[in-house]
Structures are given as structure tokens and as C-alpha cells.
């Protein structure tokens, strides 16, 4: 592994995403990406008595399906890096009980998907292990309950509000055996905290946009690449409000994003025209995880995309911090993926 | 791992962005709450709930031969029951996204706040869950309702307007 510039890791061995899975709830299953998900639960309860248990089931299912997709026996798995949005990251820690491997719990709010992928790839790339699982989850109702109001409480959300994705995405990262079968994890740019004074938890897109723009700028500065290198650059959950702000910030920064397709997982996961309740779009740890491990990896395998940069964005506030009037610190972590095949 | 390479030294323009600059830059992209539309919807839906309440009260008066004062309490109870049923079936929150203050202000909103909290925290047990959280949202209505009543009471007493109930 090599450090590029100040914020980027280049994985010299190019770890492989051996298998991945995206498991979602009923609302995501009604969205435009339904065909790209490995499992769709038909109820938010998932047969459990509490929302928290339901989220755990979601996570366990995703971990199990990722191992199956990778064709890897659970005994061969060596490390698990995971996190979620719950207090004390209970969803991933409790799901880790079933895996029986050394576990690193990470928290990057909705950026956890790429944070865990970057760390798992680092473990494998540095020779610290051969197989690592990276994953994250979020559940609409656990998040509503913890960060907002009881799920059935009748409050009117503003047009900037986003809808937490019920979903979990996991990926098995393996040492590159040189057979050329991808997709490969090429590099990761770790984000700095950006806080431009926004305090409204119902406008997270605008709060997180500077973090996304900062990490994207740092990625191109550190790697010396330009946006045209990638077929697709997606942010995690900026949604309809944050994405155009990130575009404006990147334009100000002089990054020619018009060279590539620049979009957002929060806008991909739902159809905002028919699924009005999502308001500005999707959010949550599961948002970038299910879009990346479900939709984007499938497109890469089909050969539609060769190089992709995923920039997962996270708002690092707690219910306590915003009640105390604190602004929202945000972070974004980017991971570059490349599909296998010739010319590499 | 290789030694740390030197920081490339290119200062990002984002570093010099102040919260004021950012507010200015992001403002055109942030849709504001549609206040007029929300007011109109609140007026219609809140009014409709009041009409429903009036209808229930009239029914009590006609069927059970009650005075309007006697019919008031059972009317409120029926509205609370309707609200609790709609909350339990997962309908009230969806109505509220359209209606806003229209469903929040009447007694049905108060019932919804208590019922939703009770449902949500049932998983944490009856005492610490339901009991401890039921007034999580409604509690401040009670606290500030009592405070407001006290202040108004003091004003009445000081002004010598008396405290007799006009009935």
C-alpha cells in the first residue's frame, strides 16, 4: 500500500471484491433498482418484534449472502469491519456475533460503507489477512426512532428532508490472486471533517455537500487523475438538495466534473416521482452500500462501467448535539473501484 | 508502509469557505417550506377535524339528550380514539405529512404524539419504555400549558379581573 498526497491510499496489490450483497426493505424493493438487490424483505418488521432486531436480521442476511456470493466458507473469513447508525453501533456488533471472526466496529455515519471498505481493503492489501468482510446497514424505523420522532408520529417534514434507506450491503474483500477477475479496489481517499455551520438535521444534503466536494477534490489532487478517468462518480446520500450544491462547489474548485457522470446514490435508490414520501431522496448507511454492492457492481460485471469512484457522505451529529444547537460535522470517504479484464 | 509523502501543498479553495459564503452559495439550491400551501392545508384539514368533532358532539346531544357541556368530554374521547386507531394502523403520520399543523394542533395530534411514543417504546418494557416515554413529546405541551395558565392567572389576579368561570 502506498500513500498518495496527503489523504489517499493506493492499494498496490489491488484487493478483489470476491462477492457482495445488497439486502433491502419493501420500499427500496419498489424502487427502480429492485432487480439489482439480492434479497427484498416484504415488511419493515422482518418477522421481528423490535426495529433494532429487524435491522440486525437485515445485516446478518447481507453478510450471509455476501459470503455465498463469494463462494467462501464462513470459517475462511478472517476479519469483519462494520458499522451502522445506531447508538454504540449495535446492529453491526450484534450481527458480528454470528460471524465469529475478529471485528472492527467503525462509525462514519452514512460514510461507513466506504470507510469499512477502505479499512477491509487495507487489511487485505497490507498482508494482514486474506479475506475480510466490510458491511453496513440502516433501517428507516430505527433511525426515525433514534434521530427524529417515533415512527408513527405525525410531523410534517420539509422539502429538504431525506428518507433513510432500509438496507444492508456487505462485500467480501480478498487478496488479489492475479487471475484478473475483478472488481478491484484501487484506491481510497479518506475525508476530512467539514462543518460549514449548518444545524438543520432535516437538511443533511446541504450539510454534507462540502465534505463530498472536499474529498473529491483531494482525490484528484492526490492521484493526479481527472474526473474523466471514471465512468461514474457517485456520492452517498446528498440527494436532490446536496448534489447540485456539491456540483457548484466542485465547479468553484475548478474540477471538470462534466467529463464524467456525476450522480448520487440517494437519487438512484428511489423513484422520487412515484415514491413521494422519500421527499429529497434516500439517506443512511444502507443507501450507498446497497447502491454500490447491488447496482454498481452489477453494472461493472456487465461491462457497462469500468472505473467508478464512490464517495460516501456522512453527517456525524447525534440527537443530543443538534438539540444543543451544535452544527453538523460531515465527512466523506471515497473508494475507487475498477472492473477486471484486459488493459489493466 | 512507506514513509509519509509530503503534503502536496495545494490549498483548496474550500478551506477558505466561510459559513456565510456557504450559506450564500447553497441558498438557491435549498427549497424553502411552502408556507402558504402548508397554511392552507392546515386550515382545511384542521377545520375538517373540528367539523367532525362538532358532528360527534351534535350526535351525542341529539341521541343521548346531553347539553353541549355534557357532550364535550365524550366528543374528545371519541376523537382521541379515532386518532389512536389511525396512529396504530400507521395512517396518521402519512396524513400529517400532507396536513401539517392541521393534524398536529387539534386534540388528535396530542393523542397521536402519546400513542406513537407508547408504540415505539413498547419494546423497552412497560415501565421504562411505555411509561417513561409516553410523554416524551406531549410532556412539553403539558409543562408549557401549565406555565401559560399560571402566567395568565397571575395577570388576571393582579388586574383584579377575578377568576370566576363564566358559566
UniProtKB/TrEMBL annotation, chain A:
Pfam families the record matches: SpoVAD (PF07451)
InterPro entries named in the record: SpoVAD, SpoVAD_sf, Thiolase-like
Listed GO MF terms: acyltransferase activity
Name of this chain's protein: Stage V sporulation protein AD
Provenance organism: Paenibacillus albidus
Automatic annotation (TrEMBL), chain B:
UniProt entry tagged with the keyword Transmembrane helix: yes
Residue ranges crossing the lipid bilayer per the database entry: 42-64, 71-92, 140-159
UniProt entry tagged with the keyword Membrane: yes
Keywords: Membrane, Transmembrane, Transmembrane helix
Protein name: Stage V sporulation protein AC
Amino acid at each position: 500500500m502506498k500513500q498518495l498526497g496527503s489523504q489517499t491510499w493506493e492499494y498496490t496489490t489491488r484487493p478483489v471484491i470476491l462477492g457482495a450483497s445488497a439486502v433491502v426493505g419493501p420500499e427500496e424493493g419498489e424502487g427502480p433498482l429492485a432487480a439489482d438487490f439480492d434479497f427484498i424483505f416484504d415488511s419493515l418488521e422482518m418477522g421481528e418484534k423490535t426495529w433494532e432486531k429487524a435491522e440486525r436480521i437485515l445485516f446478518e442476511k447481507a453478510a450471509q449472502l455476501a459470503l455465498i456470493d463469494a463462494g467462501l466458507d464462513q470459517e475462511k473469513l478472517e476479519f469483519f469491519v462494520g458499522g451502522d447508525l445506531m447508538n454504540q453501533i449495535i446492529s453491526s456488533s450484534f450481527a458480528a456475533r454470528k460471524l465469529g471472526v475478529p471485528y472492527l466496529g467503525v462509525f462514519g455515519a452514512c460514510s461507513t460503507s466506504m470507510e469499512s471498505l477502505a479499512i477491509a481493503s487495507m487489511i487485505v492489501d497490507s498482508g494482514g489477512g486474506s479475506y475480510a468482510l466490510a458491511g453496513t446497514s440502516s433501517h428507516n424505523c430505527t433511525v426515525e426512532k433514534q434521530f427524529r420522532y417515533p415512527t408513527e408520529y405525525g410531523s410534517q417534514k420539509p422539502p429538504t428532508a431525506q428518507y433513510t434507506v432500509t438496507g444492508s450491503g456487505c462485500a467480501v474483500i480478498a487478496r488479489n490472486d492475479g487471475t484478473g477477475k475483478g472488481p478491484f479496489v484501487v484506491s481510497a481517499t479518506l475525508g476530512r471533517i467539514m462543518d460549514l455551520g449548518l444545524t438543520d438535521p432535516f437538511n443533511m444534503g446541504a450539510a454534507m455537500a462540502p465534505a463530498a466536494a472536499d474529498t473529491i477534490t483531494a482525490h484528484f489532487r492526490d492521484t493526479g487523475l481527472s474526473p474523466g478517468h471514471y465512468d461514474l462518480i457517485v456520492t452517498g446520500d446528498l440527494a436532490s438538495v446536496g448534489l447540485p450544491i456539491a456540483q457548484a462547489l466542485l465547479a468553484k474548485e475548478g474540477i471538470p466534473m462534466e467529463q464524467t457522470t456525476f450522480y448520487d446514490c440517494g437519487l438512484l435508490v428511489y423513484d422520487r416521482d412515484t415514491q413521494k414520501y422519500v421527499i429529497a431522496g434516500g439517506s443512511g448507511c444502507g443507501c450507498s452500500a446497497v447502491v454500490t454492492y447491488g447496482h454498481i457492481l452489477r453494472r461493472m460485471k456487465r461491462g457497462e462501467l469500468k472505473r467508478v469512484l464512490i464517495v460516501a457522505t456522512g453527517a456525524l451529529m447525534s440527537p443530543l448535539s443538534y438539540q444543543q444547537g451544535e452544527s453538523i460535522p460531515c465527512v466523506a470517504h471515497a473508494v475507487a473501484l475498477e472492473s477486471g479484464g484486459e488493459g489493466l | 508502509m512507506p514513509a509519509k509523502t509530503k503534503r502536496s501543498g495545494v490549498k483548496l479553495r474550500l478551506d477558505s469557505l466561510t459559513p456565510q459564503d456557504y450559506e450564500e452559495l447553497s441558498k438557491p439550491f435549498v427549497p424553502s417550506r411552502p408556507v402558504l400551501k402548508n397554511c392552507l392545508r392546515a386550515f382545511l384539514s384542521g377545520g375538517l377535524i373540528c367539523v367532525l368533532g362538532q358532528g360527534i358532539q351534535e350526535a351525542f346531544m341529539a341521541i343521548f339528550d346531553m347539553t353541549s357541556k355534557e357532550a364535550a368530554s365524550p366528543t374528545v374521547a371519541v376523537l382521541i380514539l379515532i386518532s389512536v386507531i389511525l396512529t396504530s394502523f400507521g395512517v396518521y403520520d402519512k396524513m400529517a405529512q400532507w396536513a401539517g399543523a392541521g393534524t398536529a394542533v387539534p386534540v388528535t395530534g396530542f393523542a397521536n404524539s402519546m400513542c406513537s411514543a407508547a408504540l415505539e417504546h413498547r419494546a423497552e418494557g412497560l415501565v421504562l419504555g411505555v411509561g417513561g416515554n409516553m410523554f416524551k413529546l406531549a410532556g412539553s405541551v403539558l409543562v408549557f400549558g401549565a406555565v401559560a395558565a399560571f402566567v395568565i392567572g397571575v395577570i388576571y389576579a393582579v388586574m383584579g379581573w377575578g377568576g370566576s368561570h363564566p358559566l
